[in-house]
Amino acid sequence: MSQQNCRWGILSTAGIAMKNWHSIAASGNGQVVAVASRSQEKAQQFIDACQGSVPVPHTVDAVGSYEALLARDDVDAVYIPLPTGVRTDWVVRAAEAGKHVMVEKPCGVDAEEVRRMIAACESSGVQFMDGVMFMHSARMQAMRDVLDDNSSVGTIRRIASQFSFCADEQWVSSNIRASSQLEPAGCLGDLGWYTIRIILWAMQYEMPVEVRGRILHGVRRPDSDAIVPMEFQGELHFASGVSATFFNSFRANHQQWFHVSGTQGYLTCQDFVLPYFGNEVAFDVGQHNFVADGCFFNMEKSLRTHTLAEYSNNHANAQETQLFRDFAALVASGQTDSFWPEVALQTQLVLDAALKSASSDGVAVNPAV
């Protein structure tokens, strides 16, 4: 492989792959060389649509099967946005073919599937990473600096997060995220992966000792053999005394926030998953003060907004582009980074524990067991 260029294959023509076509094109160290679908015609339609929106100067081949793409010797890495229910075998086959692997989230149906993926990648010496874009934003380090400065937030006591959007009935009846065969975790898998990850990140990847979950609303379509969560709440407790809560929903308007409360202040971010459109990302730090003086009781506001120059939506320094740039740099280095599979597995373990709790009337589940 060229040290300057990671050659990508895309396994599937899922809508999110169009966004990441753009991300790869803007990365500066990668290019899409082939797209595979179950028919060459469908793959070509995807390529034509992407070229019409974000044209690239080189030919991208339409491949009529996933097997044929994995057999190519001009593909270094594959991006796999296939449905979770059918993804594991293709991740394993990609790793066995010597391809580095980036997968969409949730990584697997359960932790055993994720372990199988990771083991295959480790055996072949290829990188495994999930496509959590916000992990690659410069905002993450800026927030980490604030949480670790011992004065802005102080000792963490409580973390809360929500990621939601409101889907209509047509979406629920047709989208794969409401199918128990393809996306059995529903909103917990699609949205909860992010809220769980940001909690683990804030806790420096300390695992909770207790997880509770509850499906607040679910659907069972005629094509599904089980109820799929449409609205889910979870609660995490850590040995250090910190508690955390998350809420995910396909039934509430767009929200994607998290809030860390501490002994001296709090940190809050309103768009941690998908930054609001523009050329800056931001977060707030509050240290309000209550003052009582005789008959005067005042809550004094102290709120500081931290901003960073970072574009949203596929710009050269946006988090989506940085995700693919970081991955390609690992491929070029010839080394693998165990951090990425480790945090993917941690996230899956917490997700699994939340689902297990929800199926048992909200009993506490230890995700390490």
What report would you give on this structure?
- This protein is α/β, with parallel strands linked by helices.
- The chain folds into two domains: 6-134, NAD(P)-binding Rossmann-like Domain (Rossmann fold, 3-Layer(aba) Sandwich); 135-318 and 346-358, Dihydrodipicolinate Reductase, domain 2.
- It is 34% helix and 28% strand.
- It has eleven helices and 16 strands.
- The chain has helices at residues 15-27, 40-53, 66-70, 84-96, 111-124, 138-147, 169-174, 186-190, 192-202, 319-333, 339-358; strands at residues 6-11, 30-36, 61-63, 77-80, 100-103, 128-130, 156-166, 210-219, 228-237, 243-249, 251-262, 266-269, 280-286, 289-293, 296-300, 303-309.
- The chain has an eight-stranded mixed sheet. It has a six-stranded parallel sheet with strand order 3-2-1-4-5-6, sandwiched between helices.
- β9 and β10 (243-249) form a beta hairpin.
- The radius of gyration is 21 Å and the shape is globular.
Give the topology, please:
Layout: E1 6-11, H1 15-27, E2 30-36, H2 40-53, E3 61-63, H3 66-70, E4 77-80, H4 84-96, E5 100-103, H5 111-124, E6 128-130, H6 138-147, E7 156-166, H7 169-174, H8 186-190, H9 192-202, E8 210-219, E9 228-237, E10 243-249, E11 251-262, E12 266-269, E13 280-286, E14 289-293, E15 296-300, E16 303-309, H10 319-333, H11 339-358
Helix pairs in contact: 1-10, 4-5, 5-11, 9-11
